[in-house]
């Protein structure tokens, strides 16, 4: 039993009128996603626990609507829909002055303020509830780097970076990589949205950009190449096309000339043989004297 518990018990024994007191521990609980959370709640009361009522309620951050976590009264245990099959009662209700619970497979939607409320009629005076804040952390998922705008000198180019998951929401930083070293970027970064605006881009801004999505429990990076690559591709394509065309023409020309040569050669050969044949028959009137 804690010191406060002992003191309260002592006070009640010496006859002071002690009303109900509820305490939670810890006041702030940090868990990572899929882990379990133990929410301790202890109370002190003078009355027997025959009319005990315990209620755990979650007030999720950024939401107006409370979520029912757990309810106990007159031997009946009710677990809220959102926590079905994930909630354990750590101490038999109505036996000890202990209303502790644990929740397994914590989700990011489980984050918020949990209140433990205890009523034990007719003991209605005092602090009947206490609350704790529960953070659920999740590492950022692998971000996606994107490029928008016309990557040509003088234009506005935006680079985007986004992680689907991560709690608390990741912050994004952009750096430029040069020979493995990080450099500051010329441009304006919105660290919450992950957008980097590069106004009036020049060739000095071309290169490799890295985005770092980070939160309290981790970070992930993605990189993107910023260059007038499209133009290069077009030029390279055109050059290769032209070269191929040229090669084809060359081949064609060679083929034609070769073919023609062959025919000429044949013709020449044919006429030569004929000439020889003529020669083979010496003209009668040119017999040497
Ligand atoms: C829990 O997380 C909060 C928010 O990030 C932080 O301020 C606090 O120091 C953390 N507490 C512990 C005990 O880790
Ligand atoms: C209440 O019960 C839980 C779970 O059994 C235990 O961890 C905790 O120490 C108890 N609290 C007190 C004050 O005994
Ligand atoms: C864009 O940059 C070029 C070269 O640095 C400069 O001459 C031009 O004035 C700039 N244009 C604008 C709108 O800032
Ligand atoms: C990303 O940012 C986090 C938090 O600032 C830092 O610890 C980490 O070293 C960075 N990683 C890289 C690769 O820059």
TrEMBL record:
Residues that span the membrane, as ranges: 233-256
Membrane topology summary: Single-pass type I membrane protein
Record key words, sorted: Disulfide bond, Immunoglobulin domain, Membrane, Repeat, Signal, Transmembrane, Transmembrane helix
Top-level taxonomy: Eukaryota, Metazoa, Chordata, Craniata, Vertebrata
Keyword Membrane attributed: yes
Keyword set includes Signal: yes
Provenance organism: Silurus meridionalis (Southern catfish)
Cell compartments where the protein resides: Membrane
Name listed for the protein in its UniProt record: V-set and immunoglobulin domain-containing protein 1
Gene Ontology biological process: epithelial cell morphogenesis; maintenance of gastrointestinal epithelium
Domain Ig-like: 26-120, 122-227
